[in-house]
Design brief:
Distance between the termini: 25 Å
Strand content: under 5%
Number of strands: 0
Largest sheet: none
Structural class: mainly alpha
Oligomer: single chain
Length: 62
């Protein structure tokens, strides 16, 4: 999952861009990599019942 920063205010936009001014070490990248379980945290795309639930939700949005 990814958090996306959103703002229409110049000051907040500058703060959001400034938050990207860092570098991760190789060790930190390895620690992050082990978090990847290679599966969706949202729903199982291979589960027909889960796909139907999402499809039905989207279908009912006007």
């Amino acid at each position: 999952m990814v958090a996306l920063a959103k703002s229409v205010h110049k000051k907040r936009m500058a703060e959001n861009f400034a938050s990207l001014d860092f570098k991760l070490t190789d060790d930190e990248m390895k620690k992050i990599a082990v978090l990847d379980k290679n599966e969706s945290q949202f729903f199982d795309h291979r589960d027909p019942a889960a796909v139907k639930r999402i499809h039905d939700l989207v279908r009912h949005v006007d």
